[in-house]
């Protein structure tokens, strides 16, 4: 055998081995068996490891799944590829339609920073953001300037504080003031003794969160006012309004 022929045979052998492995893999030889046989009198039921505990043993097949097939948690034999595709579709659908609270309420995730600003991770629909702000952990956010909303729309504000400073010196809240309220006068009257909501201030407030210190999240869900116009929201913690911790809710149909 010449040297050239030898190489040819070696190459052919390598191709055959690779093809053999690929075939074995597609038939599932390398997968650990994802099901076990459960003896049930005269016969076995084949039960997957991720069995739905609410489904009775009788519902599980008495034959093993074939190549490229699998048993679902509820006992159907299905094509593995189709099942995986279906699971992926379901996962992406739920992440598109639902927020983390599991409902469809429009949710705005705000972060309160040590620079005394309301920031967001990204501008979503109907949000107006401004300059970029870097927090102490090196992450960049966008300053939130305006929220646009429809009259009567359900809105959830979720505010999380990211801070390196102790709670008495750095906490935030989100206070939505009624139209025509003097925001400066409101925050001037807010202080630690009154938990940053001045006495009698309730009549000026449409809705507000409690205070959040580092790592804490406060949230509120409310109906946007029916009256179109501009509503100011502020953080009423000491000096934060003056530092720019404020913005507008723009209500328009
Ligand atoms: Cu604040």
Describe the SSE topology.
Layout: H1 3-26, E1 35-40, E2 43-48, E3 69-71, E4 77-79, H2 80-97, E5 106-112, E6 118-120, E7 127-134, E8 140-149, E9 154-161, E10 175-177, H3 183-189, E11 205-208, E12 217-223, E13 229-234, E14 246-251
Parallel strand pairs: 5-9, 8-14
Antiparallel strand pairs: 1-2, 3-4, 5-6, 6-8, 7-8, 9-12, 10-11, 10-13, 13-14
This protein binds copper (II) ion.
What descriptive keywords fit this protein?
single chain, 253 residues, alpha+beta, Immunoglobulin-like, 2 domains, ten-stranded mixed β-sheet, 3 helices, elongated, binds copper (II) ion
What does the model show?
The protein has 253 residues and is an alpha+beta fold. Strands 5, 6, 7, 8, 9, 10, 11, 12, 13 and 14 form a ten-stranded mixed β-sheet that branches. It has a two-stranded antiparallel sheet with strand order 1-2. It is elongated.
Brief synopsis:
This protein has helices at 3-26, 80-97, 183-189, and strands at residues 35-40, 43-48, 69-71, 77-79, 106-112, 118-120, 127-134, 140-149, 154-161, 175-177, 205-208, 217-223, 229-234, 246-251.
Largest sheet: 10 strands, mixed
What's the average pLDDT?
A: 89
**Helix vs. strand class:** alpha+beta
Q: Which radius of gyration do the C-alpha atoms yield?
A: 30 Å
What is the helix fraction of residues, given as a range? 10-25%
Q: What is the CATH class of the largest domain?
A: Mainly Beta
| Strand-residue proportion | 25-35%
- Topology-level CATH name of the largest domain: Immunoglobulin-like
- Which consecutive residue ranges, at least 5 long each, have pLDDT under 50? none
Shape, principal axes of CA atoms: elongated
| Count of distinct structural domains | 2
Number of H/I helices:
3
Compute the separation of the termini in Å: 86 Å
